[in-house]
Design goal:
3-stranded antiparallel sheet; single chain; Nuclear Transport Factor 2, Chain: A; 4-stranded antiparallel sheet; alpha+beta; 5 helices
């Protein structure tokens, strides 16, 4: 299961109406001084819109990795809190994700990514750079992950699979700049395809 697929097939199985739906952010470069630092600084984008686009793309990657970590160990409160921190305060999408993870905990489920799943960023459009900060992204996600039961084994002792259906989804998200970082304020699914990969190549 990957971030872009949340709210689709599995959520229907759970019969919950969840809409939409890693690791530390990039660290500033240490300043070694001298000409090398000046040269490196000159290569960084200076246009505020270009900087914002770069940072939103980094936030998308952090979110994807945080989602994978949270559904792999939904009982780990630290991972759950990290994922939820990537949402703007008080938005319905955050509440939906929290409810989604709570169902995993209550039912003893977890998820792991499949061998071929990936996400591509199709576009990032910056309406306003920080400090106001508002942008929209479109991602395509091929999800071949597996949701499995951590508690109940099959009669033969093997793993009980809850869901292993592959799916492609295109998702749009609205990002806002809040408390010094880009966070999700809205999300919706544009298109889905069951059982096939319709995303652009990596």
């Amino acid at each position: 299961m990957r971030a872009g697929s949340t709210g689709l097939g599995l959520a229907a199985t759970l019969a919950v109406g969840i809409v939409g739906c890693g690791q530390d952010g990039p660290r500033p470069l240490a300043d070694p001084g001298g000409r090398a630092a000046s040269s490196r600084s000159a290569m960084l984008p200076t246009d505020p819109y270009a900087v914002a686009e770069r940072d939103v793309r980094a936030a998308i990657e952090r979110y994807d990795q945080a989602f994978l970590a949270a559904v792999a160990a939904p009982e780990d409160q630290r991972k759950t809190e990290l994922l939820l921190s990537l949402y703007a305060a008080g938005v319905p999408e955050r509440d939906g994700m929290e409810a989604f993870l709570r169902i995993f905990v209550e039912r003893g489920w977890a998820s792991r990514p499949g061998p071929d799943g990936y996400q591509t960023v199709e576009s990032v459009s910056v309406a306003q750079p920080p400090p106001v900060g508002r942008a929209t992204s479109v991602t395509c996600t091929f999800d071949d992950g597996i949701v499995y039961d951590l508690v109940n084994r099959a009669p033969d002792g093997s793993e009980t699979i809850v869901s292993d259906a592959a799916e492609t989804s295109r998702t749009t998200r609205t990002w806002v700049f809040e408390q010094g970082s880009w966070r999700i304020s809205e999300a919706s699914t544009l298109e889905t395809w069951a059982g096939e990969n319709r995303c652009p190549p990596r």
